[in-house]
RNA sequence: GCCGAAGUGGCGGAACUGGCAGACGCACGGGACUCAAAAUCCCGCGCCCCUCGCGGGCAUGAGGGUUCGACCCCCUCCUUCGGCACCA
């Protein structure tokens, strides 16, 4: 039966690898190490579709290639198994999430194993394993035990001087005032510095469902399930102080081999900006403005703003003279104080309205600015002018200081707001000529559609827009000038920014603000601290105990669960239904919660960790997955880290990668890991698309209802021809192709090869069942090139056996050119072109009567990383008894890729008109001569005068010629 | 709206650093083998023109530019996909 039988071969070799533990990796070796990692998959109940194994196929091919090149390769697999779906399923059916999870894991493990990936299965684990939960909790406690010292100076492994480091909380200096206040105050003081801390933060509370919802479960302020109203209510939460590491998260990106767009996205997410904080005096204060300014001048800028000032953050302190009003976030603490009795009901109404909008809904109303005047005023510290204070939802309490100075002349949002509520607009930066020109062009284009009501002004301006009429028309322009320009209308007795370019103006005004005790330069980040607690059952319990006072109420004092009491495992529960309280399902486990220790009463923390926790450090556990005493052995970590190649989807570009990097840096600061960054090289595989079929009425038809024939699709019932469109795979589109389908039909090798053959790893590409067929044909051809299909027993094709003579020159040239190209393609993860090269090889050698054994062996070696099962089988047919997995990669003999003669195209005026063949060592002169004597070239040059000849050795010759005029 | 990526035959794609556009595969057409079909093998296959040849022209989203020479670099525009969402 020597026809290619993928199923028999694949079962045989998968069994062989497993029995011989072929891919289990030792932790020490004289070979260079290589750590190749796939992103931690979530074991969903749906199983894998053809898109999932794309990245796994790529890393597997790379690992197998590198093993043959002599590397000691770590290539593990595991499961990120906590998460919402299993819990949701438990609520609906009563099935314990652990049961669902285990079932899903074994299904996915089966699917992965069938593809024959060379994972070290001895290292497999799931984030839900108690031993893993143990060390996840241990890391949480490390975060709890760490504070960030922004002043600490140290030298990084590259010898660079750095400032700011995470240190043990025991090293936190305690101010004398705190010390004297007693033990309890010291505790609270420490708690306020920890990287893991508690704070109030709003959650999506759905009273009807009796539970807290994730953002994605809320649509337009209502629950996705059941369409019930959702409220935002504050809740005590655990936060992680990722903002302390903001600068290092940006700086350290530089050393990484990551795609630039991903680095860019991370930078933008952290969103560092340089600006200034400025205090504005509130008019309704008890003191007078004069007294306030005098005090400030004497005392300087205080760390906290005090009750009579609004502190704002701005990136454009140079526009301070143009601040004509202020806006506070509705949640800002000073709103109550500023609001006058007249305005109170309006303001309260607005606050209520804004508080029930999720951030997403706030954005939905963008464009139309909403807000309310508080009735209160503040004083602009540079002009001394009284300016109104408003509240509006476009100012976010979570960013900066939750308050802004509004400069409608030079900020688009402020301009729109000012126009809506008819607030004054003042020009304080003179735009560039270039901008005037652009604005003028824009006005001319908009001329007919733009209708702006203008009292006392003719609109649009008669004269072209420019410095002379800018001030006059500023509030009518469709866009504010927000770029750098020159200061204007910006002077008071103490300081003038007039005619100063923006960067200098910023410096000058900040210096003045500092002198006056009114402001200081400041850096802000968009990045916010990481909300780390979830009101869920199926997650790692947060290992914290809350001390209870005599009444059994939490005293506010907390302590970590002792290290030797970890892990804190989830209590067994049967009913996962919501409690009806925001606290989450663990509140039901009364016995589990109650802890008595050394005669004192404690309640366990009932919040659990988010799904991110498990995927934040799994790459470290893979270095030493069975360690019972430690999260990992430092020697093993030192040997394997960092991850040399990390492959996964771009959807994790920001959050997962940022969170992991943050944990890694804390672990580094506390001396637990040897590298500052976890993932040296990152590659994002592109999405695999599928075809969605719809009827002429636009109804989606699932694959089970489609009859494919003659390259077209017909509805099984109506026989209507269906139109196909390439789209993302999703359940709702009915176009999901489970990976079992191609594996069953064509085998694992064909499936893996096709995953890579469709196109470059990083691009989005459509799956085509017909394309899979082509790959299957290729493997069959390769098989027949080497195996004799005629008899009953497995033996070499006579064309291979017969040949005792060495390969001829041409065969060697084909072979070595293939080795050269495939080796380079494998190194750069260009598997699509590597496969093409192997196809060309097969096409060539299939036509050869004599197929030298050495050539066939090299071919099988090159095929083996990509299609390992068939390669093992062919390797055996070729007479080897050992697995091919560690056989050395074929060596390139560069003599065979050098040509003795070269064919070069000859261009005349950039068009190919002939070809010449010259010897490889011919000089430019000789090439030119050869070109000029070529009959076709001669013919084309008739009646032309040669003006110039460009000779690029080995590439081409271009003759520039002009027709003779005479 | 902003940020990012990408537009090449009927389709997926290839083309290394600015040097022969369309490798390889799919689909399609023709032929061989066969009683027949499948499988397999061979040939053809960007578009257009013609005096049908070893001919010519046009072609890498559109328009322009740089260059002896542009899929590749620059400018403007169009389209598609992905991400983000008023960040002061």
Mind explaining what this structure looks like?
The strands form eleven sheets. Strands 10, 11, 12, 13, 14, 15 and 20 form a seven-stranded mixed β-sheet that branches. The termini are far apart. Helix 23 packs across helix 24 (748-757), helix 25 packs across helix 28 and helix 29 packs antiparallel against helix 30 (868-877). Among the domains are: 272-431 and 481-525, Isoleucyl-tRNA Synthetase, domain 2 (Alpha-Beta Complex); 767-895, Isoleucyl-tRNA Synthetase, Domain 1 (Orthogonal Bundle); 900-963, Ubiquitin-like (UB roll), CATH 3.10.20. Strand 7 (218-219) and strand 8 (222-223) form a beta hairpin. The chain is 34% helix and 21% strand. It is built from 32 helices and 37 strands. The model is unreliable at 447-451 (pLDDT under 50). By secondary structure, it is α+β, with helices and mostly antiparallel strands. It is globular. The chain binds one RNA strand of 88 nucleotides through helix 9, strand 11, helix 13, strand 15 and helix 14.
């Amino acid at each position: 039966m020597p026809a290619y039988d993928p199923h028999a071969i694949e079962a045989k070799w998968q069994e062989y690898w497993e029995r011989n533990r072929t891919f289990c990796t030792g932790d020490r070796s004289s070979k260079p190490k290589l750590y190749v990692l796939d992103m931690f998959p979530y074991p969903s109940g749906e199983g894998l579709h053809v898109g999932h194994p794309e990245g796994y196929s790529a890393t597997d091919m790379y690992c197998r290639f590198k093993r043959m090149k002599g590397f000691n390769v770590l290539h593990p697999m595991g499961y990120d198994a906590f998460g919402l779906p299993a819990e949701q399923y438990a609520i609906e059916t009563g099935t314990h999430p652990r049961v669902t999870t285990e079932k899903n894991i074994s299904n996915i493990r089966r699917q992965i194993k069938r593809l024959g990936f060379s994972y070290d299965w001895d290292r497999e684990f799931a984030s839900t394993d108690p031993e893993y939960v143990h060390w996840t909790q241990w890391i949480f406690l490390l975060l709890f035990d760490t504070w960030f010292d922004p002043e600490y100076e140290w030298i990084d492994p590259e010898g660079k001087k750095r400032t700011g480091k995470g240190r043990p909380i025991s090293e936190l200096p305690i101010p004398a005032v705190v010390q004297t206040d007693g033990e309890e105050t010291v505790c609270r003081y420490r708690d306020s510095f920890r990287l893991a801390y508690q704070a109030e933060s709003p959650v999506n509370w759905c009273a009807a469902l009796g539970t807290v919802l994730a953002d994605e479960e809320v649509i337009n302020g209502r629950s996705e399930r059941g369409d019930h109203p959702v409220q935002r209510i504050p809740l005590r939460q655990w936060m992680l102080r990722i903002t302390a590491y903001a600068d290092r998260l940006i700086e350290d990106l530089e050393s990484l081999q990551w795609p630039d767009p991903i680095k860019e996205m991370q930078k933008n997410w952290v969103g560092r900006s340089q600006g200034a904080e400025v205090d504005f005096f509130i008019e309704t204060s008890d003191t007078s403005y004069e007294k306030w300014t005098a005090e400030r001048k004497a005392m300087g800028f205080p760390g906290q703003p005090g009750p009579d000032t609004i502190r704002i953050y701005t990136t454009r302190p140079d526009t301070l003279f143009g601040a004509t009003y202020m806006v506070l976030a509705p949640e800002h603490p000073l709103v109550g104080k500023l609001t006058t009795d007249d305005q109170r009901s309006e303001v309260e109404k607005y606050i209520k309205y804004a508080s029930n909008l999720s951030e997403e809904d706030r954005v939905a109303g963008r464009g139309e600015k909403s807000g309310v005047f508080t009735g209160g005023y503040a004083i602009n510290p540079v002009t001394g002018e009284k300016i109104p204070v408003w509240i509006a939802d476009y100012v976010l309490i979570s960013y900066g200081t939750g308050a802004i100075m509004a400069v409608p002349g030079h900020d688009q949002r402020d301009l729109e707001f000012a126009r809506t509520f008819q607030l004054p607009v003042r020009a304080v930066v003179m735009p560039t000529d270039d901008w005037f020109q652009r604005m003028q062009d824009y006005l001319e284009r908009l001329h007919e559609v733009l209708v702006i009501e203008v009292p006392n002004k003719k609109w649009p301006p008669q004269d072209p827009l420019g410095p002379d009429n800018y001030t006059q028309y500023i509030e009518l322009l469709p866009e504010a000038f927000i770029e750098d320009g020159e200061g204007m209308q910006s002077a008071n007795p103490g300081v003038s920014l007039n005619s100063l370019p923006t960067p200098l103006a910023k410096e000058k005004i900040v210096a003045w603000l500092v002198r006056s005790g009114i402001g200081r330069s400041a850096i802000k980040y968009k990045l916010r601290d990481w909300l780390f607690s979830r009101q869920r059952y199926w997650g790692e319990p947060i290992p914290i105990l809350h001390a209870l006072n005599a009444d059994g109420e939490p005293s506010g004092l907390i302590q970590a669960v002792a290290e030797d009491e970890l892990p804190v495992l989830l209590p067994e529960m049967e009913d996962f239904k919501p409690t009806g309280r925001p606290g989450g399902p663990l509140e039901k486990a009364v016995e589990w919660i109650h802890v008595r220790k050394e005669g004192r009463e404690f309640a366990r923390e009932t919040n659990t960790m988010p799904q991110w926790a498990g995927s934040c450090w799994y790459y470290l556990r893979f270095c030493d997955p069975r360690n019972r005493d430690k999260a990992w052995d430092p020697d093993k970590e030192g040997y394997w880290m960092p991850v040399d190649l990390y492959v996964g989807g771009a959807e994790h570009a920001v959050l997962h990668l940022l969170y992991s990097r943050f944990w890694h840096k804390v672990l580094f600061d506390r001396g637990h890991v040897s590298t500052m960054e976890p993932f040296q090289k990152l590659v994002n595989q592109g999405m695999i698309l599928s075809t969605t079929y719809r009827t002429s009425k636009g109804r989606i038809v699932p694959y089970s209802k489609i009859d494919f024939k003659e390259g077209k699709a017909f509805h099984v019932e109506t026989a209507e021809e269906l139109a196909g469109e390439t789209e993302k795979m999703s359940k709702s589109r009915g176009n999901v192709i489970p990976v079992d389908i191609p594996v069953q039909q064509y085998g694992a090798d064909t499936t893996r090869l096709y995953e890579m053959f469709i196109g470059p790893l990083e691009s989005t590409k459509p799956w085509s069942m017909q394309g899979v067929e082509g790959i299957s044909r290729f493997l069959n051809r390769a098989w027949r090139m080497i195996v004799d299909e005629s008899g009953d027993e497995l033996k070499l094709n006579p064309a291979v056996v017969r040949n005792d003579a060495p390969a001829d020159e041409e065969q060697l040239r084909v072979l070595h050119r293939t080795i050269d190209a495939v080796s380079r393609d494998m190194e750069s993860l260009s598997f699509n072109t590597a496969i093409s090269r192997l196809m060309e090889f097969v096409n060539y050698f299939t036509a050869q009567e004599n197929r030298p054994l050495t050539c066939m062996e090299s071919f099988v070696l090159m095929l083996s990383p990509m299609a390992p099962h068939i390669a093992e089988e062919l390797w055996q047919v070729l007479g080897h008894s050992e697995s091919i997995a560690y056989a050395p990669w074929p060596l390139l003999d560069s003599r065979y890729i050098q040509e003795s003669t070269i064919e070069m195209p000859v261009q005349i005026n950039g068009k190919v008109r002939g070809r010449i063949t010259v010897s490889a060592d011919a000089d430019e002169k000789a090439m030119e001569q050869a070109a000029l004597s070529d009959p076709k070239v001669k013919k084309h040059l008739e009646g032309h005068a040669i003006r110039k000849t460009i000779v690029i050795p080995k590439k081409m010759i271009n003759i520039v010629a002009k027709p003779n005029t005479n």
